[in-house]
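Researcher: Quick test of sequence recovery. Tokens follow.
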């Protein structure tokens, strides 16, 4: 695997070659991903996959014209052809008044924050196999589990390097590990499935496979013999693993590109209450070992912790340089990109702060409601905020979690849902987006 120094030099040399070929400005990005994945089913090894791939991307500017190309080959011939093709394409591209690199005076200077993203481990396939087998064995041992969809364990390392013609050149590595199990409970038409999963940057932080398997089995069994609820308005409570979707709907609505295109239900809402007063939502790119931690963004700008929602008030858009220029604002250090194409904008480790109520207290006054553990479909309108999705979970009766529920639909409007949202106190940092248990009053449920 390339060292960070070698990768950094490689993208810097590619940018220099683009300038020599006639580009007024350029940036280049390099990714190398190495991973091992092991899958088992019914106690037997099903698959071992080892992948090692790399991609290098180049974006060039000729005046306000730009083009992007990428290649999975880093031979001298391939790189030379990529430079020539990119410059030729840019000269034929339409002008874009907002295109360009990030402002030079805003680039990261000095050392990037330490995010502890690489633990140096490289577990052997046998160790991953043992982890997957244990997760499935424990899941299958739960009374009521009748079959398995399999279990898996994975390990990987990524190297990313970025260079710009304005003088930025940095690289970093990160590791990632995962373990999962998915099992089936019941028989025939009454079968139900569920899963357990965890991922971490450091192998030492990965949850024990026994706990993952037990959670998968218990979840599947609890879903057996589901019923329905009568249609009508009622409180809906979102389990943390599905409650994170609320953060996804928020970020999609506040990216600079959505605002510039006027395709967001939160247009013109910066500086105004979007959530209830007690709600704060933070983006923390510097969390040690965070799944999306980063010391600089995809344009070379420094990153910083930020409250996107501060006591209910929307504080900013998420902007790369192009969308910021279009909006007449400054980029926010949230640029993201792959190996090809222009940057977009996105979050790092995003979370909604915990509330003050326990989960038991949060639902104590609900006479009839729905506790959601699974959402189905994509029925969300990003322009109007209208929301309608299939759901499964459990009834809430007289303040207690009751029988399993399936095949219902919950509906509302995200603007109203955000304002009606109340968090519990059970926040855990397990994903790139994290929320505690969330209660949303006043939603409509379509059931029996």
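Model:
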């Amino acid at each position: 695997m390339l060292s960070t120094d070698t990768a950094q030099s490689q993208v810097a040399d590619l940018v220099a070659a683009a300038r020599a070929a006639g580009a007024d400005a350029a940036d280049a990005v390099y990714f190398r991903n190495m991973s091992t994945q092991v899958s088992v089913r019914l106690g037997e090894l099903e698959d071992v996959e080892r992948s090692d791939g790399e991609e290098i991307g180049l974006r060039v500017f000729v005046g306000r014209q730009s083009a992007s190309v990428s290649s999975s080959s880093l031979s001298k011939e391939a790189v030379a052809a990529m430079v020539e093709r990119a410059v030729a394409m840019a000269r034929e591209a339409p002008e874009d008044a907002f295109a360009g690199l990030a402002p030079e005076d805003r680039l990261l200077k000095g050392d990037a924050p330490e995010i502890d993203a690489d633990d140096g481990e490289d577990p052997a396939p046998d160790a991953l196999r043992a982890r997957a087998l244990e997760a499935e064995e424990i899941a299958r041992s739960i009374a009521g589990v009748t079959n398995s969809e399999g279990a898996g364990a994975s390990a990987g390392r990524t190297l990313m390097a970025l260079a710009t013609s304005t003088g930025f050149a940095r690289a970093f590595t990160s590791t990632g590990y995962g373990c999962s199990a998915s099992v089936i409970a019941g028989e025939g038409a009454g079968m139900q499935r569920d899963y357990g999963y965890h991922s971490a940057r450091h192998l030492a932080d990965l949850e024990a496979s026994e706990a993952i398997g037990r959670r998968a089995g218990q979840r599947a069994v609890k879903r057996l013999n589901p019923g329905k609820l009568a249609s009508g308005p009622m409180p809906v409570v979102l389990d943390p693993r599905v409650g994170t979707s609320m953060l996804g709907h928020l970020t999609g609505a506040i990216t600079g590109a959505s605002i510039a295109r006027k395709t967001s239900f939160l247009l013109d809402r910066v500086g105004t209450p979007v959530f209830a007063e007690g709600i704060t939502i933070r983006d923390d790119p510097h969390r040690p070992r965070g799944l999306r931690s980063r010391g600089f963004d995809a344009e070379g700008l420094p990153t910083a912790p930020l409250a996107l929602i501060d006591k209910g008030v929307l504080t900013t858009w998420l902007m790369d340089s192009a969308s910021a220029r279009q909006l007449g604002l400054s980029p926010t250090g949230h640029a993201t990109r792959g190996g090809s194409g222009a940057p977009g904008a996105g979050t790092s480790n995003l979370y909604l702060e915990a509330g003050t109520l326990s989960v038991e207290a949060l639902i104590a006054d609900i006479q009839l409601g729905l506790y959601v553990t699974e959402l189905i479909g994509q029925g969300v309108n990003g322009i109007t905020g209208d929301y309608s999705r299939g759901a499964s979970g459990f009834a809430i009766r007289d303040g207690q979690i009751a029988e399993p529920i399936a095949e219902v639909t919950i509906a509302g409007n995200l603007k109203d849902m955000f304002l009606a949202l109340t968090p519990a106190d059970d926040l855990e940092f397990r994903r790139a987006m994290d929320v505690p248990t969330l209660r949303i009053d006043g939603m409509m449920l379509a059931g029996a």
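The mean pLDDT is 96.
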